[in-house]
């Protein structure tokens, strides 16, 4: 049986024999929250990181918290869906996703 290049790199068989390419997508996720103290911000950062948001920077936003993601995924939809799932796993609710123009250009 002949191994594909992807199988040689990862050690895992691939379904169709092609290497799956992951692209980096940049977008923001807005989480409604009251103004936070420094300690509350650290707690939020910890819970978001533990839920898988280690590829996001956190900052204040007029509506609460803004998470600036740079996420690798097979598609923009997959990147956003997985980010929302991670935020919700941390116990937060996503109110809005914002994209920069280059994130949606083809």
Compute the gyration radius: what is it?
17 Å
Structurally, how many domains make up the residues? 1
Tally the beta strands.
4
Query: What's the main sheet like?
Result: 4 strands, antiparallel
Uncertain spans: 1-10
| Mean pLDDT value | 84
CATH architecture type: 2-Layer Sandwich
Helix content: 25-40%
The termini sit apart by 38 Å
The CATH homology group name: YebC, transcriptional regulation domain
Order of helices and strands: HEHEEHEH
> Helix/strand/pairing class, anyone?
alpha+beta
Total helix count? 4
What is the CATH first-level class name?
Alpha Beta
Q: Strands across the major sheet, in which order?
A: 2-3-1-4
Please name the CATH topology.
Alpha-Beta Plaits
Shape verdict:
elongated
| Range of strand content | 25-35%
Can you offer a commentary on this structure?
The chain is α+β, with helices and mostly antiparallel strands and 106 residues long. It has a single domain, classed as Alpha-Beta Plaits. Helix content is 35%, strand content 28%. The protein contains four helices and four strands, in the order αβαββαβα. The chain has helices spanning 5-10, 38-50, 76-89, 101-104, and strands at 23-32, 56-61, 64-73, 96-99. Strands 2-3-1-4 form a four-stranded antiparallel sheet. Mean pLDDT is 84; it is low at 1-10.
């Amino acid at each position: 049986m002949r191994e594909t290049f992807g199988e040689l790199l990862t050690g895992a068989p691939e379904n169709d024999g092609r290497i799956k390419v992951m692209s980096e997508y940049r977008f923001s996720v807005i989480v409604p929250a009251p103004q936070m103290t420094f300690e509350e911000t650290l707690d939020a950062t910890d819970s978001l990181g533990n839920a898988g948001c280690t590829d996001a920077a956190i900052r204040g936003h007029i509506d609460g918290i803004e998470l600036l993601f740079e996420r690798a995924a097979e598609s923009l939809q997959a990147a956003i869906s997985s980010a929302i799932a991670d935020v919700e796993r941390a116990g937060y609710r996503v109110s809005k996703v914002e994209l920069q123009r280059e994130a949606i250009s083809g």
